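User: what does the whole thing look like in 3D?
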Amino acid sequence: MKTAVIIFPGSNCDHDIYYAFKKVLGAQTDFIWHKESNLSSYDLVVLPGGFSYGDYLRSGAIARFSPVMKEVVKHAEKGGYVVGICNGFQILTESHLLPGALHKNVHRKFVCRDVYLRVENNRSVFTGLCREREVLSIPIAHGDGNYYCDEDTLRELEENAQILFRYSNEKGETDRRFNPNGSVANIAGVINKSGNVLGMMPHPERRVESLLKHDDGLKILKSLVNGISGN
Amino acid sequence: MKANIIIRLKKNILDPQGKAVHHALSDMQFGDVEEVRIGRFVEMVFNHNNREQAEEETRKICDKLLANPIMEVYDYTIED
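Assistant: Here's the predicted 3D structure for the full assembly of 311 residues, as structure tokens:
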């Protein structure tokens, strides 16, 4: 399995996700500068967190037009796997690879802390190692993580089991009190209809070793490696 | 030609920036301000005087980059 980690000007979680795939999971992983235009040899493309182009205009809006994004769209349309974390999620919605949009947190604060996520669908390639409705503890760090979509889109997301993670408490209760940013329906991560593109605000790459409190993030990344390698 | 573009959040989208400014205005005793909504203003200068072309390109640029149609709307005027 070969993973490409795309670097945009302003990405800052690129090394963390590289470390997780390469050192912790032993997957062949390369950094790809956003000006490059060939991803054909990769199984998985990761858009890491950060502040691409300084979040000018809207988070992710300018990165969407980086040369490499044409290839990312092509890769996704061919069924290749794509994961966008935090700013990567924002870029994926701006590119229309995922529905909805991410705007300013409802309380106007940048939030950087551990949150609980309930796994809503464990039949995806991204969550194959999670139990049904398992609760994971993974950190968030964002100012624009407030997921928005209209009611029709929300209905569609629910009907197609595209909501992969919702913010919850440690018992897996998902009411508004456990929503850190105002997201519609406590949405923390969604997949596209075909199930090969994931966007999520929490950072699984920051929880990949038990030395750092716990390794819940590894479940997601390992699911993906196993799913792609056919294990 | 010059395009003056205003991008606004759709009515049903909460505007945390506007809310923060509204709080400040209340603290400043401007109690009669009922609501504040904050958008973006973009000036775009073209290197030609073709109004039709400027208008068409402005629309395309807004749809593709300057505004996100999921949560924003835009208006523009074109001037010489």
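In plain terms: The radius of gyration of chain A is 16 Å. Chain A has one domain: 2-229.
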